[in-house]
Design goal:
66 residues, 2 helices, mainly alpha, single chain
């Protein structure tokens, strides 16, 4: 299967990742000041765990993965 790239300026072609990027920016990147790269990695790991397993997901009828 050949690669299919998103056309420049057509972010609606990949709404899932755009939604994820918006959540990441709003909930983590705009809220934290990182003191080091290790601090950023640690905070990102915690946020990613929460995003993937703790918070309710509309695709799962607002259930969590736990």
């Amino acid at each position: 299967m050949p690669w299919h790239y998103i056309d420049p300026g057509q972010t609606q072609q990949n709404a899932f990742i755009e939604s994820f990027n918006g959540s990441l920016r709003d909930e983590l990147l705009n809220e934290e000041i990182f003191g080091s790269l290790d601090d950023a990695r640690r905070n990102l790991a915690l946020w990613r765990y929460d995003y993937n397993t703790v918070r309710p997901h509309s695709s799962l009828a607002n259930q969590t993965l736990q």
